[in-house]
Amino acid sequence: MNNLVTLDEARDHLRLDEGPDDTWLATWIPVVSEAVALWLKDEWRLYQPEVDSDGEPVLDSDGRPVVVLDSDGEPVVRWAVKAACLVELASQYRFREGEGKDNVMPADAGHGYVLNKASTALLAPLRRPTVA
Q1: pLDDT in tens, 95-125
Q2: What's the confidence (pLDDT) of residue 117?
């Protein structure tokens, strides 16, 4: 799986210059990208779907949406997914030993507590629901 945000996007969001935090970012960008992907459950949900002339998603032979590819042939990350990754990175950067008290996702919320509240709010409309 590709990282969902670039090092430059993360630096811009965190208002960091190139420097010693790059090592931390190089570790955490893939970690957060994977956490977001696992939370959404289906990899195709990470990417912008291709739509037909009626605005309906184009489906492949398995019934999954076909994703938009950029000029390099890489899938285009949805804006909400990119924003959720940046928000999660900011939270992890600020609270390196754990979650801040106001951004904790309580276990009884019904959808786990892997990501913080703000990231979860951005991603919730994209997630496949699970019935136990």
Answers
A1: 877 666 666 666 666 655 678 889 999 999 9
A2: 84
**pLDDT over 80 at 3, yes or no:** yes
Q: How far is CA 32 from CA 74, 78, 87, 121, in A?
A: 19, 15, 10, 16
Q: What is the pTM of this model?
A: 0.85
Q: What gap in Å lies between CA 18 and CA 40, rounded to an integer?
A: 31
Say which amino acid occupies 65. P
User: b/e for 103-115, b at 16 or more Cβ within 10 A?
Assistant: bebeeeeeeeeeb
Query: What does the alpha-carbon distance between residue 113 and residue 104 come to, in Å, rounded to a whole number?
Result: 7
Tokens of 3: 């990282």
For 83, the token pair is: 């924003």
Structure tokens at 25: 């970012």
